[in-house]
Amino acid sequence: MSFLQDGTGGYLTLFLAGALANEVWRLLGVVAGSHLDMDGQLFQWVRAVALALVAGLVSRMVLFPAGALADVPLAIRLASFAGGIALFYAARRNLGAGVVGGGVLLLLAQLAWS
Amino acid sequence: MQDVSSPASAFLQGLRASYSVAAFVLFATALGFGALARDTGFTLGHTAFLALTMFALPNQVVLIDQLARGASVAAAALAVTLAAVRLFPMVATTMPHVRGTRRRPVLEVIAAHFVAITTWIEGARRLPAVPPDLRLPHHLGIGVAVCGMMVAGSVTGYLLSVGMPPVVSAALVFTTPLYFILSLVATARARLEVSAIVLGCALAPLFYLVVPGLDLLATGLVGGTAAFLWGNARR
Predict the structure, then answer these.
(1) What tens digit of pLDDT does each residue of B200-216 get?
(2) CB spacing of A85 vs B66 below 8 angstroms
């Protein structure tokens, strides 16, 4: 492997560029969170930002996927996504039905299309 | 959740999250991460190390992608830290839920490590039913269970990656956004929450095309603030 050193050096790289760069936001979150009042306006705003951000990640993952999912046509991704949501409600808001159902829909549609 | 009476039983209750839909979906996605790590030339040890110490799948993928493309350590760290900003509001809103009446700084930092989208969503679903002073052990239980599934999934995916048909890995990866959106929708009641989710979904593709790299941050700030203002104005 050319981009990582062997042994400790490689792990050090992963720790600095990965774990540390990642964890710093969690530590800052602990500090900020210890001053947040759950009934306060600031808490509501931070929560709204977090929700919008995660929802944004969802639409980015479906519309602009990486890896194997990128080879599945957009129409199949969108139809399976809508199908999963429909199954969720049809099964009385059952999370498993929506998630597994949507995944199976994508698998079958892609097999039928290709 | 009435049978939760001691910190130990609250922790064990949390561990039960390892056989939830959430854990299954995370395992499925982690399979994809393990396969990607092997594809790009990382060792099994590196893969498990990243799953355990980062415990945030999208950020793990960013790091692997950067290093495999030959980015410097500093450039890779910058890309990871931009992706990790989203952990900040999630941790900041989880901490007031779990801290109870007594301050336990070390346990709070460990609890914060276990905050990722999956545990944040599961916590929002389960924690309100738990007595305040038992929420920290309960959250730690959820964290250990879900983090364990992350490592197990990554290792399994690494070992299985040779021979998995691409269409199967595509379907596995696809369950993650579905799980995220359905759990968000299932727990959102207030106008503020629903509008934050709708705005987030709508704005992200636009920001992705205009400011790639900063797109999620911009989506969260613009969409979240608009939802906050609108939710308050109508109250």
Answers:
(1) 999 999 999 998 878 88
(2) no
